[in-house]
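SAMPLE LOG
Freezer: B-3
Tube label: C17
Construct: single chain, 300 aa
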Amino acid sequence: MIDIHSHTVHSDGSSSVLELLEEAEKLNLTLLSITDHNSIQAYYELQNSNIRNQFKGEIIPGIEITTTYKGEIIEILGYGFDLDMMQQFLNNNVLTFEEKQLKEYELVKNRYKDIGVIFNEDNIKFNPKIESCRPAFAIEIKKYPENYKFFLNQESITTTSGFTRNELFNPKSPLYVDESSLFPSLETAIAMIHLSGGLAFLAHTFAYSPNIASELLNIIDNYELDGLECFYTTFTKEQSNYLVSICKNKGLYMSGGSDFHGTRKINHNLGTGHGDLCIEEAIVENWINNYLPSFKVKKI
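STRUCTURE (predicted):
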């Protein structure tokens, strides 16, 4: 069993690198990738043998780069890249985690003031070093029934993730906020991965608003993706089968993972997702075999 989509405290996960590796070892994972948002700092920690040796399986360098498509937030997973080259691209093209959170706060605050959303700015409390302002905004604006008219989807009123994906990131929602200025373009994100020697995969197609799923073939035809994340915690079998069929028809690689965030994302358990996720090595062997021998983070 493998899991090549996971997060640590170096982005928005709650687990340290050591804790993540210890959990992966307990689960007997054979392949792991830490795909922190816009950060590869976990891999510099892995140069410490006391940490790396806690996991007997293989590790392939990974990252999840945030970008946008037609104004909507999407993410690109990169695997098998050169660490130092990727770090240079990150330095030149990507805001630090804290910088991004602070700028996002200003964008959301100003947009919602402009359209008349009711909220008390003093109640929007978050630590930009480790978290986004979005959950705090979701909690605050839901306090006022007068704001319900702004919601495109009623599910968004009851779940924070629904608010983020269905409203704030969805250009069709009155609560949409254009955050494209915060991220590299889709072309740049893919180029960062390729120029660092890696492969680029579209992350969790069906975790976005339905707009992205409907645009999937256009994205594939117009951008140089190498593959799709076909197996994911929240995907149905039908959704996974659909993505697998596209990969086969388009000659794309496949990947999969839980999107583990520790306690920061409920029921995205490492390796098993909601409990029944079980990703076999066979889905990735046709590209892992080419990249893992030279790019894996070796034990020291």
